[in-house]
Amino acid sequence: MTTTSPARTAAARGARPAPAERPRRLRTTAAVRRLVAEHRTHPADLVLPMFVLEGAREPVALGSMPGVVQHSMDSLRRAAAEAAEAGVGGVMLFGVPTTRDATGTAATEPDGVLNAGLRALVEEVGDAVVVMSDLCLDEFTDHGHCGVLDASGRVDNDATLVRYQEMALAQAATGAHMLGLSGMMDGQVAAVREVLEADGYTDTAVLAYSAKYASAFYGPFREAVDSQLRGDRKTYQMDPANRREGLREATLDLAEGADVVMVKPAMSYLDVLADVAAVSPVPVAAYQVSGEYAMIEAAAANGWIDRRRAIEESVVGIQRAGADFVLTYWATELAGWLR
Ligand code: PBG
Question: Is 0.85 surpassed by the pTM of this model?
Answer without folding.
Answer: yes
